[in-house]
Amino acid sequence: MQSNHLLLEEPIRMASILEPSKPNFFPAMTKIVGTLGQQSRSVDIISGCLNAGMSVARFDFSWGDTEYHQQTLENLRTAIKSTQKLCGVMLDTVGPELQVVNKSERPISLEAETLVVLTPDQEKEATSNLLPVNFSGLSKAVKKGDTIFIGQYLFTGSETTSVWLEVSEVDGEDVACLIKNSATLAGPLYTLHVSQIRIDLPTLTDKDMEAREFLSKLGNLNQTLIFAKIENIEGLTHFNEILREADGIILSRGNIGIDLPPEKVFLFQKDALYKCNMAGKPAVVTRVVDSMTDNLRPTRAEATDVANAVLDGSDAILLGAETLRGLYPVDTISTVGKICAEAEKVFNQDLYFKRAVKNVAEPMSHLESIASSAVRAAIKVKASVIICFTSSGRAARLIAKYRPTMPVISVVIPRLKTNQLKWTFTGAFEARQSLIVRGLFPLLADPRHPAESTSATNESILKVALDHGKATGVIKSHDRVVVCQKVGDASLVKIIELED
After folding, report:
1. CATH topology of domain 24-95+202-345
2. pLDDT tens digit string along 385-408?
3. 349-497 — its CATH code?
4. Selection from 323, 453, 312 nearest residue 389 by Cα
5. In three state form, how does the secondary structure of 147-204 look?
6. What are the domain boundaries of the chain?
7. Sheet architecture: strand order including 248-251
8. Nearest to residue 364, comparing CAs of 330, 331, 398, 334?
9. What's this model's pTM, rounded to 2 decimal places?
């Protein structure tokens, strides 16, 4: 593992701890992903989530049909229009998920030190001593002594709704297990996870393939970012290869916490986030404030956990059950945003910057050199904001890679394209995709033709960006602003001092 000093600035003054948190135009540089579902799919609640700081909405396809999610998406679009807040969309595919099927949906009580049989016969009824599963290869994958976990722990964090089993005997396709703790399973489906065992199932299910074909027909697949969700020992083993191919990484700590001993989870988090940061790829951490599913406040441990995820270098915090079916989705987003903002104030940017520069292979690319120079300049002159002109979003993402202490306003300039039959604008896609990157706040400029890239149009777009910064309170009179833009073939970093 790479050496990873605590990314914390010294010293923290007690006075600053006692000061009340100051609200800002954005709740935090770290982004918040909210899962939309039962408790959070109405236009009102989604609007509340957007105003509280949600910048990406997640749709979990492991439950609910496409019509259900489509209606939620329509509500999200309405909420975006009414709040005037940009929001990205994350589609979480089903993947090779093992599940226990309870057709009657009656709660099932399991008693410690008794036996339960797992069977692939899904026609049978789920009872306290027989649980049908959706996978016929379970008996071939496990052996006596293996650990199997069933329940909603991945979603709730409550031991009373999940059960640990130890395989005691394999009989044909059935697997008999000893129940290690008493629990009550509720609902139609529970996740089944076999600890540290490779389950031979395709990563993309038929349902996932349908989603991929649909994206292909829309012609957007080549623009869609694909994030890899690391959730088992296999993902840990092949992490470096996965990081090379993926556009971003989601650390599914609920699942990882089953495959790894509790004392190892934090090491994996630190190492994985470090590697993502150095590669300049967004990293998302899950399972941080489980208790807020039912409570208005997080536990002290959870609040500390959110802050540590920020200090470790996370781009975004993903909320699952807390917003999906939690009682306080808007309050949860607001609380997590406040914790992130406080952690960002003491993030050791100087140490991080040196480490990021050191990790870039020499000679440094032209774009990387401009991005790191822009951040260095902004920090030296104490700029209030960095404004970056971009069409693909790559330049702005590279600036954000160096974690500047001030927000990066990414001015995405749409390009006019034609396929001889119709004209289309590109840009909105790129703007929304930056909503998962820490410190990056997109602004969509007026569309223009590539030939119109004159200094006059650049100046008029810069004025719009500065006015936006002033209106939101991030830029004030006499502030300094660093601007990064392309002029012809050259890239330019300039410092502007604002008058009254």
Report:
1. TIM Barrel (3.20.20)
2. 999 988 788 899 999 999 999 999
3. 3.40.1380.20
4. 453
5. EEEEECHHHHCCHHHEEEEEEEEEECCEEEEEECCCEEECCCEEEEEECCCCCCCCCC
6. 24-95+202-345, 98-194, 349-497
7. 88-92, 54-60, 31-35, 316-319, 283-286, 248-251, 227-230
8. 398
9. 0.86
